[in-house]
Design a protein that fits this description.
single chain; 128 residues; alpha+beta; OB fold (Dihydrolipoamide Acetyltransferase, E2P); 5-stranded mixed β-barrel; 34% strand; disordered N terminus; NlpE C-terminal OB domain-containing protein
Length: 128
């Protein structure tokens, strides 16, 4: 009986830790059914995406998205740079037969825009 209780307690601890880690970048907001999402934003041509590290969202191209794009341009060094952002939006699943990312987010509010980290993400290949 003690072993069963110990195993059950350990199992609940592990499950609660997993759920806590998954919720670190996407936060539900009760007001107006908005979801707060922190991730890296990129807009090129006719496509915009927001990547959280665990999920990639197609971003609806509208006036709010263009407002966000104008804000991130000051931090971009090249056209293909992702910029860290936090937004509030409405998440909808893609249409059944549509191609692309499984979810789309329509931005309702730009919460913050941050400069990209200065980490050196360059891969150097040496030939001998």
């Amino acid at each position: 009986m003690k072993n069963t209780l110990l195993i059950l307690t350990m199992l609940l601890s592990v499950v609660s830790c997993k759920n806590e880690a998954k919720q670190d970048r996407v936060e539900e907001s009760i007001e107006e059914n908005l979801t707060t999402i922190s991730g890296e934003f990129l807009y090129m041509g006719e496509s915009a995406v927001l990547s959280t590290g665990k999920e990639v969202y197609k971003v609806t191209i509208d006036e709010k998205m263009k407002e966000l794009d104008a804000s991130v341009k000051t931090f971009k060094k090249s056209e293909i740079d992702f910029v860290p952002v936090t937004i509030k939006g409405i998440i909808t699943p893609k249409e059944k037969d549509a191609e692309g990312w499984p979810f789309e987010v329509t931005i309702k509010e730009v919460v913050s825009v941050s400069p990209p980290s200065e980490e050196n993400n360059t891969i150097t290949i040496k030939s001998e």
